[in-house]
Specification:
This protein starts with 6 loop residues before the first helix and ends in an 11-residue tail after the last helix. It has two domains: about 5-130; about 135-290, no CATH class. A hairpin with a 4-residue loop joins β4 and β5 (about 70-75). The protein has helices at about 5-25, 90-100, 130-155, 195-200, 255-260, 265-280, 285-290; strands at about 40, 45, 50-55, 55-65, 70-75, 80, 165, 170-180, 205-210, 220-225, 240-245, 250-255. It contains seven helices and twelve strands.
């Protein structure tokens, strides 16, 4: 799926995920690096997971099979919003009304982050496209990326994030940490307070992910903060991987993975080798942080 062929749907869906993500953020206590705001890949789409809501629990899920936004509470109540061509303003109004109908009263910061321009949700009639096939194909990309990232995550016993979807930049990510604090991040993301990045990058990290940009069909990426000397020049595979000076990270085009003889092995090579670039050059304590996920296989 070429990015250029679904840009209008992508940009609309990006704003919709921000609205739902901000609902989770408003109702959830802070977790380090903003892990409490993310969405998760499911067998149907993208979900908030369980959100505390007074004495109840709430979850909200984008269903890209039936093209509905499902809203459910632990007392058995449910609502939905159709995923179809409509403006961000209409989706915002319908979602907030569906929450109110469930007795969930929440105030969100009603404008997007990490984009320019940042049109307030209630005023955004510019983004109004929704092609069901394109949305479903993107979700299917996320399903495959999520599966492989989980395998990669299993090799690390140190502090590591879940595999989760950040709606700010619209990317699926997994982040490893060295255990050491990092220099204060300078910030600079559009329409996003610098303090947000200070929290996100408070500790040394190596992060990988997938997002629908950086290539004709999207790209896998890997970067670290702070980047040690020589990181950009570190030799990594597979052969289609390269360091982007524009994005200051390694990229692997999705199309290179899709057409590879072994797509899983191609992505894992990229993830392991770019992590090695960060860990080796950054003097991480690799023996203490890494593990063999098959260490108990003979006894199970």
């Amino acid at each position: 799926m070429r990015v250029a062929d679904w840009t209008a749907t992508r940009d609309t869906l990006h704003m919709w995920t921000q609205i739902v993500g901000k609902v989770r953020m408003a109702l959830s206590p802070l977790v380090n690096h903003w892990w409490q705001v993310t969405l998760y890949v499911t067998a149907r789409g993208l979900s908030t997971g369980t959100i505390p809501c007074g004495g109840r629990a709430l979850d909200v899920e984008f269903d890209f099979c039936d093209h509905r936004l499902h809203l459910r509470t632990s007392d058995g109540r449910a609502g939905e919003v159709a995923l179809e061509p409509k403006s961000v303003a209409q989706f915002h109004a319908e979602t907030m009304q569906a929450l109110a109908d469930l007795g969930v009263h929440v105030r969100i910061q009603a404008a997007p982050n990490e984009v320019e321009p940042a049109i307030p949700f209630a005023e955004d009639t510019v983004h109004c496209a929704y092609a069901p096939d394109a949305a479903q194909l993107f979700w299917r990309q996320l399903v495959q990326a999520d599966r492989v990232f989980r395998t990669f995550r299993s090799h690390f016993i140190g502090k590591v994030s879940p595999v989760h979807f950040f709606w700010g930049a619209m990317d699926l990510a997994c982040t490893r940490f060295s255990g050491r604090s990092a220099p204060t991040h300078p910030g600079g993301a559009p329409n996003c307070g610098d303090w947000v990045m200070v929290e996100g990058y408070s500790h040394e990290l190596s992060s990988c992910g997938f997002w629908p940009g950086g290539g004709e069909e999207g790209a896998f990426y890997s970067y670290c903060y702070p980047a040690p000397d020589g990181f950009a020049d570190y030799p990594v595979g597979p052969r289609d991987a390269f360091y982007s000076t524009e994005f200051q990270q390694f990229l692997l085009p999705y199309e290179a993975v899709r057409t590879a003889a072994d797509p899983d092995a191609t992505v894992l090579e990229f993830l392991h080798e770019t992590y090695s670039a960060a860990a080796d050059l950054g003097n991480w304590d690799r023996p203490a942080l890494e593990c063999d996920p098959g260490r108990w296989d003979l006894l199970r």
